[in-house]
């Protein structure tokens, strides 16, 4: 794991130094992504911003910053493809969310990348692919690395602020990681509802599982 300097105030001041082989791999991932998303500069900038944010959140919350950075770089890999290509890939891979794929097309890119990228980067462990798989939909069994990527995706500095995003940003370093994730996750659901969009039934199940766990914990 990389060594972190946390002396300076503010998450953006956190710097991590990595072992030579980790540095080489991160450089390669960044290079590959830059080529893969050459036609989508905003998506590329977002991905690299998520990677830095995830790395810093990882340091703050005791998660492996190397895995967080790698997951951040690769999390939107499949977004290089159009929605129709993503739907085609999901069908080819047999991804079955239990509802029409078209209804949940915005959730598919994480699941697709998590199934296709391990062959390309066998050096990276399953934990990275799990984080990428659940970065859109979340799940009831989020690991701290999964939570770090999910939160980083929602609050990276290039993302325009909203009351929900502002709240999560204000909690960084002050609230436990699972509370940051919860606020981020619920904020995402509110966004879907307010926009009158389709809400994936799996998200409702995840919400209920997490809400029940949180209620139980506050009673203990
Ligand atoms: Fe994404
Ligand atoms: Fe993203």
Automatic annotation (TrEMBL):
What keywords would UniProt list here? Hydrolase, Iron, Metal-binding, Nucleotide-binding
- Family annotation (Gene3D superfamilies): Hypothetical protein af1432
Q: Which Pfam families match?
A: HD (PF01966)
Q: Does the keyword Iron apply?
A: yes
Stated EC number for the protein is 3.6.1.41
Q: Which reaction does it catalyse?
A: P(1),P(4)-bis(5'-adenosyl) tetraphosphate + H2O = 2 ADP + 2 H(+)
- Molecular-function GO term, any one: nucleotide binding
Domain HD/PDEase spans what residues?
39-167
Kindly indicate whether the keyword Nucleotide-binding belongs to this entry: yes
Database matches in NCBIfam families: bis(5'-nucleosyl)-tetraphosphatase (symmetrical) YqeK (TIGR00488), HDIG (TIGR00277)
Q: Which PANTHER family does the UniProt entry name for this protein?
A: BIS(5'-NUCLEOSYL)-TETRAPHOSPHATASE, SYMMETRICAL, SLR1885 PROTEIN
Q: What is this protein called?
A: bis(5'-nucleosyl)-tetraphosphatase (symmetrical)
Q: Report the source organism.
A: Candidatus Olsenella excrementavium
Q: Which lineage do the record's taxonomy fields give for this organism? A: Bacteria, Bacillati, Actinomycetota, Coriobacteriia, Coriobacteriales
